[in-house]
Design brief:
Largest interface: A-B, 57 and 52 residues
Shape of chain A: globular
Helix content of chain A: 25-40%
CATH superfamily of the largest domain in chain A: Dipeptide-binding Protein, Domain 3
Oligomer: heterodimer
Number of strands of chain B: 0
Strand content of chain B: under 5%
CATH class of the largest domain in chain A: Alpha Beta
CATH architecture of the largest domain in chain A: Roll
CATH topology of the largest domain in chain A: Dipeptide-binding Protein, domain 3
Structural class of chain A: alpha+beta
Radius of gyration of chain B: 24 Å
Strand content of chain A: 15-25%
Number of domains of chain A: 3
Radius of gyration of chain A: 24 Å
Distance between the termini of chain A: 35 Å
Number of strands of chain A: 20
Shape of chain B: globular
Distance between the termini of chain B: 10 Å
Structural class of chain B: mainly alpha
């Protein structure tokens, strides 16, 4: 890794005098080339849910509606409008002027087919639980559909606005193997059409000249062609960026992103999104570290964590990195709270630790998983300053999940994406509810969270979540740390507009040349 | 000879079965695949649903026997993530990996054999020591580091070669050099040792005494005998190159089996990793069998 960094540093230095004319040439050709460390084998996010696929899926497919984070509002895409018939039923009036990329008209049949396919237990969909709250969809007339939930579900619009592409029923319905759709016949209504999906060459998207929506929150394509190229190695991606072989890369570590951004011809865009870092503490002694059951100990650990230092020195993203005071990000629905974790105070932390019966500290293990290694190391260093002898167990996702289920997580430093949902509902089921992730077993939280999930009055729902988040802070269960922005490094001729909640950190329709 | 071949073939089959069982078990022990598939926010009931849908809730031996039965009929299953047939994924990429492996082998032989001959003819001189230093370098240098150095020099600084991809022959040059340099030392040492041994043998002394030209003595009489072990080692090395290109293919984004393995390992795409593991093991076992047969053909004592 050290060698890689040195190579990058040297290469970035060279880039200052190497010409960036190749990148300029790409602007002239109106082709944006994006490097992907994880290749995209299907453009359909339902079949391969990961950040890279969200690039393509959001460009090729429209949903019924979308969520605009700046105003915390839902805005229409394929639906012209919607209304709530009763707590279980949403009715959508669809646009009449939309056609699929093959020229066929978009109607209620497509929505009904897609939703009923997604909720069918026989459909082999990995993240099928995203739609399990839906009972079924039904057609009222050619441009009106109703979606009926199994029970009142307050986050229904948020879920429909997230990663729910609408398929053409005539094409998708005929396929015996639905997974082929995103690889072989990816027809959507979105601002970009698919030219090809090739395991070697990548994915080529071209502007959809017939795109009708063109609203500020869902603009028409402004770049002629977008080529997503699979390059698994970050150093190779950086070399390609510097030599004009790529125009944009993502998931770049802090030091390398800052070095590249300081080089003439390149820029960095950090998108805050809804992902945040946290430190959770086992309060019910599932892991066998009894010290953490003592609230004074948990509070002392939180007082030892300097979140400002994490913002300045560890987490990449510059001004996009913010300290988080509750288990949510302000742009999410239901992110209401009136408290904050304990302030940074090393002296006070040591005193509290002594008061709790640990004047000489104690042994503790921090577990972490990919994406949070650097933050976990920094937190471990900060805890050592108050005498807590911390070790860091860096796990893969699989290893971390196994350890979590086995109840062996003493301290976890991780990050949570809220499942990309602009609503805090998924955060409740993620942390609490008595499952393998629950290291707090607090029935009060479970009761409030369950009540909030079916509470259709936004004000009352907000109050319930405020109670949950303040309760978590009051009991020092989990310490929210900072936001985890998505980092994109790109040629300076490219503009990446902010605001996307995509796990990829940006939406292709929000990119354009200067 | 036939009896020897059959004996070795039976051993090869047993090794292949053992590899497939160990590989299957280790991959399953590496973590709960259903939990990974269900995603970070999945509830226990979601994980159970996924386990049932993908047949991961069955006993391990049933899963293995099911996989083996289908594999014997050419059905290696589907990728858990993309749902593509695994056999198709491997067949689509084997050509690229084979090109890279063969070109690397040829590169290694073209460098190693002349270098080994030269080192033997000039044993214990600066030429010999330089050749040995190069061999040590090839053996010791980490492949990923050497690959990045090549990218930096040939791709970024000089801009002579494309950095990543496998679209044109030029894309294979840097991966070939990287893999070839790592393969070359064994050939060089074997050639050198063989040549030193042969050059001191009686029939070479006779050749010199007959007044044959030096080129004829070295290449026609000495090298033909000294290089025989190199030929059998080449078969084994080809197996190593087929399976050992994971790092090189991922750095240079060469879309071969190595890159497929890398992507599948990072995602815990169990059926793909299992099939690649078995496929490469079979290649290695088959090439080792070929090597054994060549050796036995060349040296009858081995057949005893």
């Amino acid at each position: 890794m050290f060698t890689n960094r040195m190579l990058t540093a040297a290469a970035v230095g060279l880039a200052a005098w190497l010409s960036t004319s190749a990148a300029l040439a790409q602007k002239a050709q109106d082709t944006l080339r994006i490097g992907l460390q994880d290749p995209v084998s299907t453009v359909d996010i339902v079949y391969d849910p990961k950040p890279e696929t969200s690039f393509t899926s959001e460009a090729v497919f429209d949903g019924l509606l979308t969520y605009v984070s700046e105003t915390r509002e839902f805005k229409p895409e394929l639906a012209a409008s919607w209304r709530r018939i009763d707590p279980r039923t949403l009715e959508f009036s669809l646009r009449h002027d939309v056609t699929f990329h093959d020229g066929s008209p978009f109607t209620a049949d497509d929505v009904v087919h897609t939703i009923n396919y997604l909720v069918d237990p026989a459909s082999k969909i990995r993240f099928g639980d995203n739609w399990q709250w839906i009972d079924h969809a039904e057609k009222i007339d050619p441009y009106t559909v109703r979606i009926i939930a199994k029970k009142p579900t307050a986050y229904d619009l948020a879920r429909l606005a997230t990663n729910t592409p609408i398929y053409p029923a005539a094409i998708h319905g005929k396929l015996a193997d639905k997974s082929e759709f995103g690889r072989k016949t990816p027809i959507g209504t979105g601002p970009y059409k698919v030219e090809y999906v090739d395991p070697t060459k990548g994915v080529m998207l071209v502007r959809n000249p017939d795109y009708k929506l063109g609203a500020a929150w869902r603009p028409a394509a402004r770049i002629g062609r977008i080529h997503l190229i699979p390059i698994p190695d970050l150093q190779t991606e950086i070399a390609q960026l510097m030599t004009g072989g790529l125009d944009l890369i993502h998931e770049v570590p802090k030091d390398q992103a800052e070095q590249l951004a300081a080089t003439p011809g390149f820029a960095m865009t950090a998108n805050p999104g809804v992902v945040f870092y946290y430190m959770s503490l086992d309060s019910v002694n599932r892991s066998g570290n009894a010290a953490l059951s003592n609230q004074d100990v948990r509070k002392a650990l939180m007082m030892a964590v300097d979140r400002k230092s994490l913002v300045q020195n560890v987490v990449p993203g510059g001004k996009a990195v913010q300290i988080v005071d509750a288990l949510c990000v302000k742009i999410q629905i239901g992110c209401e709270y009136g408290s904050a974790p304990p302030s940074f105070d090393t002296t006070g932390a040591k005193q509290l630790l002594a008061k709790a019966g640990f004047p000489d500290g104690f042994d503790a293990e921090i577990t972490t998983f990919p994406g949070a290694y650097a933050v976990a190391e920094a937190v471990a260093g900060q805890l050592r300053k108050i005498g807590v002898r911390t070790s860091v167990d860096k796990r893969t996702f699989v290893g971390y999940r196994d350890k979590q289920r086995e109840g062996k997580l003493q301290i976890l430093v991780g990050h949570w994406s809220s499942g990309g949902l602009p609503d805090v509902a998924s955060t409740m089921t993620y942390y609490f509810g008595g499952g393998p992730r629950d290291y707090w077993h607090d029935s009060t939280i479970d009761k409030w969270a369950a009540e909030a999930e079916g509470q259709m009055d936004p004000a009352k729902r907000g109050t319930l979540y405020r109670q949950v988040f303040d309760h978590v802070n009051a009991h020092d269960y989990i310490m929210p740390l900072t936001t985890f922005p998505s980092i994109l490094v790109h040629v300076s001729d490219l503009v990446v507009e902010p605001g996307s909640l995509s796990p990829a950190g940006a939406a292709l329709d929000m990119m354009h040349w200067k | 000879m036939l009896r020897f071949f059959l004996r070795r073939a039976v051993i090869a089959v047993l090794v292949a079965i053992t590899v497939s069982i160990i590989g299957f078990s280790l991959l399953r022990l590496s973590g709960d695949v259903a939990a990974v598939l269900a995603g970070e926010s999945a509830k226990p009931e979601d994980i159970a649903r996924i386990a049932q849908a993908y047949g991961l809730d069955r006993p391990l031996y049933v899963q293995y026997l099911d996989w083996a039965w289908h594999a014997l009929r050419g059905d290696l299953g589907q990728s858990l993530f993309t749902h593509e047939p695994v056999a198709g994924l491997i067949l689509d990429r084997i050509g690229v990996t084979a090109i890279l492996a063969v070109s690397s082998l040829i590169f290694a032989l073209l460098v190693a054999v002349p270098l080994g001959v030269l080192a033997a003819l000039r044993a214990n001189t600066w030429i010999d020591r330089t050749a040995l230093t190069l061999a040590v370098f090839g053996q010791a240098v980490p492949m990923f580091w050497f690959a990045l150095i090549l990218i930096f020099v040939l791709g970024v600084m000089l801009r002579w070669l494309p950095i990543s991809g496998s679209a044109t022959p030029a894309h294979f040059v840097m991966p070939t050099i990287t893999l070839g340099v790592a393969t070359m030392p064994a050939f060089m040492r074997l050639t050198r040792t063989g040549m030193i041994e042969v050059m001191s043998s009686d029939y070479i002394r006779t050749a010199w005494a007959k007044g044959l030209r030096p080129a004829s003595v070295v290449f026609k009489h000495a090298l033909r005998n000294a290089i025989l072990p190199v030929v059998s080692l080449s078969a084994v090395s080809l197996g190593f190159l087929l399976g050992g290109s994971v790092i090189v293919e991922s750095i240079f984004a060469v879309n071969g089996i190595g890159l497929l393995a890398y992507n599948s390992i990072t995602r815990v795409d169990f059926p793909v990793v299992q099939s690649i593991l078995v496929f490469l093991s079979f290649c290695y076992i088959a090439l080792t069998l070929v090597s054994d047969v060549i050796n036995a053909r060349l040296d009858p004592r081995i057949r005893l």
